[in-house]
Amino acid sequence: MGHYLPSTEKERAEMLKAIGLNSVRELYRDVPDCVYREQPLNLPEGKSEMEISACLKQLGEMNKQYRLILCGAGAYDHYIPSIVKYIPAKEEFLTAYTPYQAEISQGILQSIFEYQTMICELTGMDVSNASVYDGATAAAEGCTMCRSKKRSVTLVSAAAHPDVIATIRTYCYGVNAEMKLVPAKDGATDLNALKEMLTQDVASVYFAQPNFFGLFEDAEGIIAAAHDAGAMVVMGCNPIALGLMKTPGELGADVAVGEGQPLGMPLSYGGPYLGFMATTKKNMRSLPGRIVGETKDAAGNRAFVLSLQAREQHIRREKASSNICSNEALCALTAGLYLTVMGPNGLQETAQQCLSKAHYLAEELEKTGGVKLPYTGEFFHEFVTVQPQRDEILKKLEEAGILGGLPLGEDRILWCVTEKASKKELDEVVRLVKEVLA
Amino acid sequence: MKLVFEKSMPGHASVILPPLDVEKKALPENLSRGRLPRLPELSETEVSRHYTELVHEVYGVNSGFYPLGSCTMKYNPRIDEEIAALPSFTGIHPLAPQEATEGCRKVLEEAADLLEEISGMDAMTFQPAAGAHGEFTGVLLIKQYHDARGDEKRRKIIVPDSAHGTNPATAAMCGYEVVNIASAPDGCVDLDALKAALGEDTAGLMLTNPNTVGLFDPNILEITRLVHEAGGLCYYDGANLNAIMGHVRPGDMGFDCVHMNLHKTFATPHGGGGPGAGAVGCKAFLAPYLPKSALMDGGEGIQVRGFAGNFLVVLKALTYILTLGKEGIPQASETAVLNANYLMKGVKEVFTPAFDRICMHEFVLDLSDYKKATGVSALDVAKRLIDYGIHPPTMYFPLIVHEALMLEPTETESRETLDQVAEIFRKVKEDGIREPELLHTAPHNATIGRPDEVAAARNPILKAEL
To answer: Do A113 and B51 make contact, defined as CB atoms within 8 angstroms?
Structure first.
């Protein structure tokens, strides 16, 4: 069996003796006999490192790796620069705990402070927290921030990601608050329906930009309607799209949230990902989770600390703004690192390539004649198509080592194209689709 | 140290993407941002140097002794990282067809089987991304159970005053009124206080066992029986599971659901504050209420996060459990308990333990007498420990002990280290008697002195001026 104990059995026996005990059972003397396990657990025998390596690699080989991924829907296959993989694997970054002891944690605290600054730049907001678990929890926590005694209802666009909707619904269920879905029309939030639903008890409206179907929402219209009715706005954003698109700050949203995975994190079957959250100065003290602030030490040196802790569970207990303790610090470091490597122009170029390549594929698919785009709105790097031979098309791509888009409903596909796809590959996709249609 | 923005030079960059090979599509003006985000501009050398500079100012488990009580800072094996970096896992899209994700699903199934056996539960979810998130999920199981039975009068969750802050915060997020009950003088649950708090309005009890003072509650069976008798359910906060694996199971103690911190007990790294994983296990009768992904699984159930959770963290934990196996898992726990007792014996010749008896995997020191005598506080002692090259213990927790320092050495420390640490505590104590000011102003060997937290809160600077 493997183990990580820096002691021998003999040493441990001596240590036991040194504390005046004779057996391990005596260490557990407060455990009642009837529940103390004399029999070993039903677990497999332990393994050496060489055996474990082989055994886990074998499990990995049961997965299929595609040479091209055209599926997004909340998890995006972007290129990850080499250095972005190596730096977060440095042992100190990897193995440290939450930076409670600022004096020996300046590296982590500074990385979070830099991340917060970059999130504020991306979103155009004033204040960012140090991260939450993922995009769905960021959206749910964002809606929680907006609730008050008088206003408790949360409106969520039906054009948002289904996992985000379900997570917001669950957080609302927790505190017995009501959540209502605003219907979608032509793949986007139905603004007229929203206006009718904006009653005096509505605390906030959540929508995503671009939305689940890849379309840009009428953000100005949604935000104006919400604000006119006295409600706040939580805007979900794709962080790569923010390299080009109008920011929540420019639009006047109250809270900006999103899934940070596209910023240097691999797909990894859904996690670890990164929830980013930012808000206006006015709402700063209702942000949940850790926030790093700059201050000085006694000698006047620049120093970073966990700040505004009076909001948090370890101080406020049942009155805290959230129960969150651990977040996704290493993912935040990764995102900051990714944005540093890409720089302003690199991020813009990535967004530009996503946008252009997605439009190229959409147009080429449409040209086949057998594939239609049901929505006419502007889109970023995801779009929906309708085609009768949906399953055959996806199967054909699958056989060619390409993961096609996400099947929706009876005959629809939600495609996603990132900077990773080349024209050559996209042309091949179109050729394969044509073969099915013929 | 300079911020990355202060090192930025216009035009410095890495060449990451090839030129665009299709026609450029312009985003319409009305959808476009006004100006580029002011991100730093650095060459790859400069990026590398910046982060190397940062990493030199981080203390990790690999750096030295890290007795942060309640956090189980055990060694994080490299092989777990290597496995979790395999492209055959990192490259898998969560929405790929079933047959393409067999390996990932097998990882989750196997990890569920093993953790169910270790915790004595019947079903698991890996959706929660951290311990507190697991608590939220677990208490929502309790809430759904009562709701499904139409038992609407159960509006209170009982939490001992020694609990982690996340427990009452969780209960509040689940819409419950929190009933804090005072601990007995021995640090365990006061049975009379519990009985007085229990009633028809009790939804459940949240409990850590061993508790936050490092003691296994000898009345545990009576506690869970009383809660069940009143119609409530019992939630096990697995923060301290590292003490008991293979020796006793939460499921056998009478708990109905648990969360396990894979980033503590199962050796996955904490990453400076996450990602973790708060796997939640429950008995069969609660299994129908476990969360699902609307997109991956369909259905109307609760959902606490997107997709299936922090998959790679679960993979690392699985690697760890399979490495240790049936012999190694209980041995890890008993060695953690042995190390804590051995360290307590060494340190109690210096400072007073809050509860002087055989402890579990951690113990708490009470420095009130020392403070009275010298004016030196637990905070001062903690900061002085930094000068001696070790990470301070958890300070001022649990709240029921004044001037508390909570030490959890874990099983991955040697006898030599524990002996040296006891010696360091002796030196620090003597430093404080000889020269209290030296401790009031500690640390002296770190890159910064004590930061002004009051100024940070009063005048918050939460991003760089660009």
So the answer is: no
Describe the crossing of helices A423-437 and A390-399 by its angle, rounded to 10 degrees. 130
| Residue-averaged pLDDT of chain A | 97
Q: What is the pLDDT of residue B13?
A: 97
Please report the sign of the dihedral spanned by the C-alpha atoms of residue A53, residue A56, residue A61, residue A63. negative
Q: Compute the Cα dihedral for B76, B81, B83, B89 and give only its sign.
A: positive
Mean pLDDT over A108-114 rounds to: 98
- Other residues' Cβ atoms within 10 Å of the Cβ of residue B142: 27
- Work out the burial of residue A222: count CB atoms within 10 Å of its CB; fewer than 13 is exposed, 13-18 middle, 19 or more buried: buried
Q: Per DSSP, which regions of A192-317 are E strands?
A: 202-209, 232-237, 255-259, 275-279, 292-296, 302-306
State residue A316's pLDDT score: 87
A385 Cβ under 8 Å from any chain B Cβ: no
Q: For each of the domains in chain B, give its residue range(s) and CATH number, in order of start.
A: 4-55 (no CATH), 78-322 (3.40.640.10)
- Chain A from 302 to 331: CB within 8 A of any B CB: 302-305, 307-310, 312-320, 322-331
Say if the Cβ atoms of A99 and B443 lie within 8 Å: no
The CATH class given to the A82-337 domain equals alpha beta
Give the per-residue pLDDT at A370.
95
With cut-offs at 50, 70 and 90, classify the pLDDT of residue A310.
confident
Q: Best residue in A103, A112, A376 to probe B by mutation, most B CBs within 10 Å? A: A103
What's the pLDDT tens digit per position in B404-414? Answer: 999 999 999 99
Distance CA B294, CA A403 (A): 21
Please tell me which of the candidates A69, A293, A419 has its beta carbon nearest to residue B93. A69
Are B240 and B260 in contact by the 8 Å Cβ rule? The answer is no
Q: CB-CB: which of A47, A114, A419 is closest to B325?
A: A47
- Please state, in angstroms and rounded to a whole number, the distance separating the CA atoms of residues B68 and B407: 6
Phi and psi at A153, nearest 5°, equal -85, 135
Show the low-confidence residues of chain B (pLDDT under 70).
Answer: none
**Helix, strand or coil, per DSSP, at residue B156:** strand
In angstroms, what separates the C-alpha of B352 from chain A's closest C-alpha? 16
Residue B88 CB-half CA count within 13 A: 17
pLDDT in tens, B306-348: 999 999 999 999 999 999 999 999 999 999 999 999 999 999 9
Buried b (16+ CB within 10 A) or exposed e, B190-208: beebbeebbeebbbbbbbb
pLDDT of residue B300: 82
Q: What would the mean pLDDT of A307-314 be, rounded to a whole number?
A: 87
| Nearest CB partner across the interface for A116, out of B446, B451, B463 | B463
**Which of A117, A167, A301 has its CB closest to that of B304?**
A167
Strand order in the sheet with A406-408: A382-386, A412-416, A406-408
Residue A78: per-residue pLDDT: 98
pLDDT of B169 reads: 96
Share of chain A above pLDDT 90, in %: 96
Whether residue B415 and residue A99 make contact (CB cut-off 8 A), yes or no, is: no
Q: What angle do CA B132, B137, B143 make, to 5 degrees?
A: 125
CATH no. of A68-78+348-437 = 3.90.1150.10
Work out whether the CA dihedral A45, A48, A49, A51 comes out positive or negative. Answer: negative
* pLDDT tens-digit map of A358-400: 999 999 999 999 999 999 999 999 999 999 999 999 999 999 9
CATH 3.90.1150.10 spans which residues of chain A?
A: 68-78+348-437
Q: pLDDT tier at A313 (50, 70, 90 boundaries)? A: confident
Residue A314's pLDDT is what? 85
From B357's Cα to the closest Cα of chain A, the distance in A is 10
Chain B environment of A93 (Cβ under 8 Å): 54-55, 58, 60, 271-272
Domain ranges in chain A with CATH number 3.40.640.10: 82-337
